[in-house]
Amino acid sequence: MQSFRAAALVSVFLATGVACGKSSGVAATGGPTPETASSAASAGDSRSCPRPSQPDRRPTVAVMYFDNGALTNRTDFAPLSKGIADMMVVSLRANCRIRVVEREQLQRLLAEQNIPADRIDAATRVRIGRLLGAQHMIMGAFVVDPRDQMVITASAVDVETSEHEADVDQRDAAKNLLDMIPALARKLNDAMKLPAMQTPVYEGARPVKRDDELLAIRLYSRALEEQDRGNKARAIDLCRAALEKFPSYAPAQQALRKLQATG
Fold first, then answer.
1. Is residue 36's pLDDT more than 50?
2. pTM as predicted
3. Is 70 exceeded by the pLDDT of residue 12?
4. Which of 8, 144, 131, 141 is nearest to 85 (CA)?
5. How far is Cα 136 from Cα 100, in angstroms, rounded to an integer?
């Protein structure tokens, strides 16, 4: 069922169009650890964050799944609901001064609470943020039009007060999704007045641009869905398929290693 947020975004999308130019307690993590260094590199950040002092008082951020408002090929784009959230987590980890809740922890909580990921209102999202031990909850939606132009909107809520903190968006061709997310993450970081990122999100080396990059990200996003359903073999196959299209896509590399390492 399409959410109110996605429906509202569709209305704005149809009214304004999309610019086609290039785009500029639960355990949490803050920046790439040795285990996640390769994933962070794919988001454009090659640094490893120093070990935080204890107790860790950095602000904690959680990212909800994004609502699918695609105007065409909705089924094909549906997995990006989780995929975009996963990419946002990776991009925000470039900021060593915040902690970011891992997507797997969010999924585990949704399963434990028996909360359908595609039917969550604003109040429930705030409650989920509290259960995750987060001070800030990010949520959003995306639309893809018949010309494969995309707009992604994201907002943030202060979990403790339920007050609205920020609204940002990023517009570009859907094929440039890998560039859109880090740019959106940086806008959010600034609008939420989080500690400044010490270096630009894309200071590190970006993977070589591939024509089938978007297809690879969609395949990886489907792998996340299968993983969440407990279909390990299918998730492995989809990760491998994503890497056939985009061999240097680090999140798929990391996910495949973790899936193969588990019994």
1. no
2. 0.81
3. no
4. 141
5. 10
Bridge partners for 63 per DSSP: 138
Residue 137 pairs in a beta bridge with 62, 157
Q: What domains, with CATH codes, occur in the chain?
A: 4-206 (3.40.50.10070), 208-263 (no CATH)
Cβ within 8 Å of residue 57, ≥6 positions away: none
pLDDT in tens, 94-131: 899 999 999 999 999 999 998 887 778 888 888 999 99
Which contacts of 11-16 are long-range, i.e. CB under 8 A and separated by 24 or more positions? 12/151, 13/69, 13/71, 13/143, 13/145, 13/151
- CB burial of 15-47 (b: ≥16 within 10 Å; e: otherwise) equals eeebeeeebeebebbbbbeeebbbbbbbbbbbb
CA–CA separation, 77 and 19 (whole Å):
20
ω into 55 cis (within 30 of 0): yes
